Amino acid sequence: MEKHRTCACAEVKDDRPHGSHHHGGHGHDEASRWRTIAPLGLSLALFVTGLVMEHLFGDRRSVIPYLLAYATVGWDVAKQVVLDLRDGEVFTENLLMTTASLGAFAIGHHGEAAAVMVFYTLGEVLQGMAVRKSRSSIKAAMDLKPDRARMIVDGVEMELDPKDVRVGEAVVVRPGDKVPLDGIVAEGDSHVDMSKITGEFVPKRVAPGSEVLAGTINGTGLIKVRVSKPYGLSTAARIMRSVEEAEDKKAVPERFIRRFARYYTPAAFAVAVTVAAIPPMLGYGSFQAWLGRGLVILVMACPCALVISVPLAYFAGMGRISRYGVLVKGAAFVDVLAGLDTIVFDKTGTLTEGSFEVREVVPIGKTTKEELVRAAASAEGGSAHPIASSIMEYAKDLGIEKSGLDIAGYSEIPGKGVIASVDGREIAVGNRGLMGKVGASYFDPGCSDPACSHTVAGVAVDGDMIGSLHLGDMPKEMAFETVSALKGLGVSRIAMLSGDKKEAAAAMAGIIGVDEVHAGLLPHEKLEELERIMSSSRKTAFVGDGVNDAPSLARADLGIAMGALGSDAAIETADMVVMDDNLNKLPKAIGAARFTRAVAMQNIFGALAVKAVFLVMGGIGRAGMVEAIIADVGLTLLTVLNSFRLFAGAKGGIRKIPDR
Fold it and tell me: Number of folded domains in the chain?
């Protein structure tokens, strides 16, 4: 037997959107839907019959069809009331509607009593369908889970659960199939649609040696993929886990509505009782008239429009943002994203390409260019830093090899450079701080190439400076346009943190349009600087690569990892993950977050305003129960549809700068 679940609209004890579990599930399958719709159809027919008979023959002969219409749908609601009370849930939607309709029968308003129950049930069916349709559409668009993996075993193609495929095995991906696991293309070439992950609708060409990710969709060619990660660690699985966990992180409006609903319904119930009892006791009118007014208030006591629509708005908003290839890990972070006034960028690899090039070599004294580059390359050979990689690449282009060298020791000084013992000599490559550490006099004659942005790596041998290498980094495409768009969205403070010296960082900031620069920072100093910035800001985001910036990502109000495609650390650490390096997705995401919050606020204030009007009109006798129930049902449906337009109106793909 299916476990009993209450509506709990007033108590808000179920975190899932209201409408997914009314009346034992509201039809979780086709059979249960018909069990709800068939009695509803019969009840509507009986209700119309009652209206006709009341018009032709008067109230007395219409009682029977009204009673039958009521009982046809009211029986299930009455059973639900008993189950609610058994579970200790008193002020539920079911009890409110049952009490209001029975009260109407008691004072002889048979048509209104039947109308309350019939229209309430109709509204439940319609809103259940609307919520299910909305959520299923959003989840379908966000669903990355592959259905199957195809493998060739002894010449026969077999279909397996992706979880059963081991690392190193090869899977066959046919045209139109989802790639089941992360891996490397072993055979074939094709184009892969990565839009559900990156938001980019231009397919990526793949060939042998190319990386492909689970959840992407193969194009027209058949490819064979060598699996590099088990399914549980695949990109699709990690993103889906983050999406599931995100539903537990509620936004401020959601938390407010949950608290509000706990008090609103009992308070409205108390007001209804007071309106029905006190005035006639004091001699102001008849008990029957005031009871009718109290029953109208009772109908409006259900906060369903609020409880359903606000969580649905944030869920739809996260779905909208996901279409841009951006994963926000909870409605709470959508709220923070919408309210950002400060964004702090790490420079290298975030605002810039992070791939340095040696622009100029400046030897000192009798040192030749080749000797200087050879010394630098021999020391940097063990480092994975972008500067080291660029020096090694430059040395290779000059035909300088480091083979045959005796490298006895190597140490990397974070934020400064490297020191290595090569053929008995101590070679240091790094910034001014490192040169001072090894006792070398630092000399920087400047760089004649403006593109080098004055990133200088000094080279010292046994404490003597022998020259310097000047390197250049380039701003990322759309960096300037993105910063301009963020300013246009009202982000009042945009700062950049860098380990480079002040002149180099300032030159790059000028190119990109960033006004505030903090340079010459060691890794731990970046975190300290971020905290200083946060102390004078309202809501601060930190944007980094998600690998080297974990402390800052965790400390900021919103940690944003850029270029996190395939990065375990980024998806685990950051609050918001941009799956590729497109900076212009940041203003897109902020625009969508603000739209989401605006829709949630529309639902809240719209629902409260309508309920306030009908509570007052009911109290003064200007609105009846039929008007109240139709208003309540219509209000709920309108707020659900208003929430869904967040997702339905989102356009796939990233172009240039966000819609505003």
Answer: 2
